[in-house]
Amino acid sequence: FRGWESTSFIDIDEIVMVERQGGTTKIHTLQGLFTTLMGIGEIEEKLKKPQFLRSHKSFIINMDYVSRIEPYGRWTYIVKFSGKDYDALITTAKYDEIKKIYG
Question: Which stretch of DSSP H or E encloses residue 99?
């Protein structure tokens, strides 16, 4: 992944979450946080499905690290990850997709 002044090589299976925030894309991994110039759509094309899910316009989540999903308002849910202090958003439509896949 291209960064500001370098290129980082990341094991895709170690990616917990990708988020787009303030014009920057952040890749949260088991090893730490990486920032890239790449757009979230460009990263999404490189990630394996169904392991990775575009849960919201600003988030891609790795289903292998999801510990729970909780309601957050009327049309949104919060995704919590095992052993991590950050979370992601998921839309109701994507949550319904997950329920169909995982029961």
Answer: helix 92-102
Q: What is the DSSP letter of 97?
A: H
Residue-wise pLDDT tens digits, 11-44: 899 999 999 998 899 999 998 999 888 899 999 9
CA atoms within 13 A on the CB side of 50: 6
Task: Tell the burial category of 58 from Cβ atoms under 10 Å away from its Cβ (0-12, 13-18, 19+).
Answer: middle
Q: How far apart are CA 29 and CA 19, in angstroms?
A: 12
Nearest partner of 72 among 98, 57, 92, 101, judged by Cα? 92
End-to-end Cα, the chain, rounded Å: 34
DSSP secondary structure, 37-56, as one string: SS-HHHHHHHS-TTTEEEEE
Q: What does the pLDDT look like over 38-71, one tens digit per residue?
A: 899 999 998 988 899 999 999 999 999 999 999 9
Nearest to 59 by CA among 74, 44, 49, 81: 44
